[in-house]
């Protein structure tokens, strides 16, 4: 295991929001100290990198100061936003400083290995409704930190939840999140390997299938459509055929059509009965689990125009005393934290990274849509795994993917730069 592999492994485990380490600020501080030492030992830190970081810091502080003044919220909201930067954003920045052009390669490599680990434990999980895996997790937690949950266990590299006993959560907090991480890794793998179906692609795709995640499945469907467009440069007729097939699949595939409709209808009912639900969930000492669509409506009703610049990283305290709800829409969660402006900045930087490989606006739009699909279900945009998109285009060399000869001859230099 080389130092790059170790840095990426730790980065992913902390980004997973699942294991006991992520709950301790001291552990995050230790990770950042370790990454700083590695960066200097490898002589990765340059003067322009420090200048770039200070510029980002200044822009971020100006941004949160302006919206804090406009929103007229308590001082601890501002403190929370500052803390977020030095906890999540600074970790993502250090990751980019160390990995630079190696970032996507090592992300694919480590996630594919974690996918193999998940498949091993997932196969064990299928026996006795996960009793064996849960026993392993419970034993591990008895030696570390027990979260007190009767249905949820985690032993750093794998998570088990009674509710999802037939689904693979991998190293993340739930199957949908794991599916999002895997889909991003599959896209990175395609970008740096000319969209080839190599060993890593097959492993990651198999792991995605075991998550039984609607958003991950939709994201992968669009990703393979992007692969088709890039490699065979299909006609408009082919695009129409793909669209018709997808349209026919939605009402006939249960986890696509029926599930989405049921979620929407249930969300509307929950919003109408929010006061009654508050009483029930308060009695059982749980949060009201608002689903995808209800989360959007609820947050819009709470903050309205404030969503343009965002409210705060701890916006939930604004309404928590009246409605103790749990938000499950990652896009709306990010907008409420950092505003529509923040979302546009993130998507622009992510698109710039993808454009370095794809070089065509149509393909970049597909890649952005994939990220939006994944984050519609899970709050991954605010995690370091996605915050790296802000910084990575600055640190990454132009090691463009070769793709086909026609693609190279039209969009790229004939001589391909050395890549990993």
Quick structural gist:
With about 425 residues, the protein is mostly helical.
Query: Helix/strand-derived class?
Result: mainly alpha
Largest sheet: 2 strands, antiparallel
Helix content: 55-70%
Report the span from N to C terminus. Answer: 17 Å
Mean pLDDT, all residues: 83
The count of β-strands is: 4
- Low-confidence parts: 412-420
User: How would the global form be characterised?
Assistant: globular
Given the structure, what is the number of helices?
17
The spatial strand order of the largest sheet comes to 1-2
DSSP strand content: under 5%
How many structural domains? 1
* SSE string: HHHHHHEEHHHHHHEHEHHHH
Radius of gyration: 22 Å
Question: Describe it for me?
Answer:
The protein has one domain. It contains 17 helices and 4 strands. The protein has helices at residues 3-15, 25-41, 47-71, 75-99, 103-125, 131-143, 175-192, 199-211, 214-232, 236-252, 257-272, 274-283, 292-303, 330-358, 361-377, 384-395, 405-411, and strands spanning 152-154, 159-161, 288-289, 325-326. The chain has a two-stranded antiparallel sheet. Mean pLDDT is 83; it is low at 412-420.
